[in-house]
Design brief:
Layout: E1 3-14, E2 17-28, E3 32-37, H1 43-50, E4 58-63, E5 66-68, H2 73-79, E6 81-84, H3 96-100, E7 107-112, E8 115-122, H4 124-138, H5 153-166, E9 171-175, H6 183-198, E10 202-207, H7 210-216, E11 219-224, E12 227-233, H8 240-248, E13 264-278, E14 284-295, E15 297-302, H9 309-316, E16 324-329, E17 332-333, H10 339-344, E18 347-350, H11 354-358, H12 365-368, E19 380-381, E20 384-385, H13 387-400, H14 417-430, E21 435-439, H15 447-462, E22 466-470, H16 474-480, E23 483-488, E24 491-497, H17 503-510
Parallel strand pairs: 3-10, 3-11, 6-9, 9-10, 15-22, 15-23, 18-21, 21-22
Antiparallel strand pairs: 1-2, 1-4, 4-5, 7-8, 11-12, 13-14, 13-16, 16-17, 19-20, 23-24
């Protein structure tokens, strides 16, 4: 089978930093190729060059054996390369067919003698007919007249794929395609990808989810630190463990091992009762939410992003004014306290966005490791910061939490995403809170750092803490949590013992297809 796309010595530099270093690889026609690697390995930079969003510093791209230059996505599409981004680029108020034809609308024509003259009016009926034919061709189960805002996330993704297929691309790049999908939608996407292959389409998948790679790829390319480490066939020898080792350069323990220490159901450390909150538009985004977390327990929150989990975290950490309810730590009311007051009452906070809410990029690591706790006597005496104590704290935590520094006490902006997250984890865990609130604790974090963070979360659980874990990674929630509550439209629609519920069942509740609030 001949190569549809090939790159030679492709390099991309940003100043002195080399994001892609002399990359050589090729993709065959009709192949499903996965490209995996740690966060910052250079996967997205490489794909953005193929799609014309970035220009190579040096090297050459070949498509259909011809040298090509992609100055823009329009050039890429014209050459036969399409890309579906992780964050969809759709207009919610337009229909399926209007979104697919957006920018290349079909205009009405009238005949003047032997000439056909295009009018400045869109031919909606022809557009709809063409899109309906395309939907049926690929068996995508979509209604061309449905507005995007009324579609599920998985259906919106299919619209994005159809946008590219309508433009007659020969190779489709999918960037983190399962990041926001429920298990049922992931199954549908994998079937869609196999269906595209059967129809002759070439697909490249950029992802970090090894289990899904194993389910759909023909071959797997691994990137590390801007280089292409190697490409392997997706066979029995290409285990997830071996792929992870190729990604990080050392063996990685992928499985989560719990201690088996029982939950202390007699002791409630954290109690939320009838909590509600409205957004800036006055819409109720957290509606009458109640739950308890016991000592030695992790309560996981599962749900499709945008269903109130972010606002729940804001309410619990004093960043959003509640519309009603109660929150207690060890029986003491703490609702509407600011983060510094909450920390004094035994709360540790790992926020959703590490750079927006968890770190100060221009401050050194040592200062970030005491942020929020800088008023404690061991760090501050009579208003004067104790530099020796702060330095001692940094040395201890850098060693204990394996925070890798490029130089002595650098600014946090110089750390990788994974090491930045470790700074937050180290700061909050070392404060010895009785309750930990964690949102997206491993987002954008590489495989090795993820395993390390998991280990420490479970350690804290076994040290008599109560932990609330909010994550868009359903496998993360299920493997770490003791109990799981499911959020949909700002409400708790289901509650389960983590080891007793399937991914499929959780997906039904996450999508709103089932709810414990439904009448019996």
């Amino acid at each position: 089978m001949s190569a549809i796309m090939r790159v030679e010595k492709l390099t991309k530099k940003f100043g002195d930093f080399t994001a892609n270093d002399s990359i050589d690889f090729e993709v065959k026609k009709g192949e499903i190729r996965a490209i995996i690697g740690e966060n910052g390995a250079g996967k997205t930079t490489l794909m953005n060059m193929l799609y014309g969003l970035l220009q190579p510093t040096s090297g050459q791209i070949y498509f259909d054996e011809k040298p090509v230059k992609m100055h823009s996505p329009a050039d890429a599409i014209a050459n036969g390369i399409g890309m579906v981004h992780q964050h969809f680029k759709l207009s919610p108020s337009l229909t399926v067919y209007e979104n697919i034809l957006l920018g290349i609308e079909i205009k009405k024509e009238i005949k003047l003698g032997k000439k056909a003259v295009k009018l400045p009016i869109i031919d909606n009926s022809t557009e709809r007919k063409k899109v309906d034919e395309l939907i049926k061709k690929y068996n995508f189960n979509l209604d061309p007249d449905t507005k995007i805002r009324d579609l599920s996330v998985g259906a919106r993704q299919r619209v994005e794929i159809l946008k590219m297929l309508y433009r007659d691309v020969k190779m489709l790049i999918l960037d983190e395609p399962t990041a926001v999908l429920i298990p049922q939608e992931i199954d549908e996407l994998i079937e869609t990808i196999h269906g595209l292959k059967r129809m002759g389409q070439t697909v490249i998948i950029i992802t970090h989810k090894l289990e899904e790679v194993k389910r759909c790829a023909d071959t797997i390319s691994v990137m590390r630190r801007g280089r292409m480490i190697g490409t392997v066939q997706n066979d029995d020898e290409a285990t997830s463990e071996k792929l992870a080792e190729m990604m990080v350069g050392r063996p990685v323990l992928l499985s989560v091992i719990k201690s088996g220490k029982p939950v202390n159901s007699e002791k409630v450390l954290y109690e939320v009762s009838h909590l509600s909150g409205k957004n800036s538009e006055g819409r109720m985004v957290v509606n009458d939410v109640s739950f308890k977390i016991h000592e030695n327990e992790i309560l996981g929150v599962a749900g499709i992003e945008g269903n109130g989990q972010t606002e729940l975290m804001y309410l619990l950490t004093g960043l959003m004014k509640p519309a009603g309810g109660s929150v207690k730590i060890n029986g003491q009311e703490v609702l509407q306290m600011y983060p510094d007051q909450l920390r004094k009452n035994g709360l540790g906070i790992v926020p959703e966005d590490r750079y927006l809410q968890g770190l100060c990029l221009s401050m050194p690591v040592s200062s970030n490791l005491i942020a929020g706790y800088h008023g404690q006597e061991k760090f501050c005496h009579h208003g004067i910061m104790d530099k020796k104590s702060i330095r001692k704290n940094m040395d201890k935590l850098v060693d204990e939490y394996d925070i890798r520094l490029s130089k002595d006490d650098p600014e946090v902006s110089q750390l990788s995403g994974g090491n930045g997250q470790k700074v937050i984890i180290a700061r909050e865990f070392s404060s010895d809170p009785s309750v930990l609130l964690m949102s997206q604790p491993t987002r954008g974090v590489d495989v090795g750092a993820t395993a390390f963070i998991y280990k420490n979360i479970l350690r804290m659980r076994d040290e008599n803490k109560a932990i609330l874990l909010i994550s868009s990674e359903l496998s993360e929630v299920k493997s770490l949590a003791d109990r799981i509550i499911v959020f949909h439209n700002g409400e708790i629609v289901g509650e389960f013992i983590a080891d007793e519920v399937s991914f499929y069942e959780l997906g039904l509740y996450m999508s709103g297809a089932k709810s414990m609030r439904d009448p019996a």
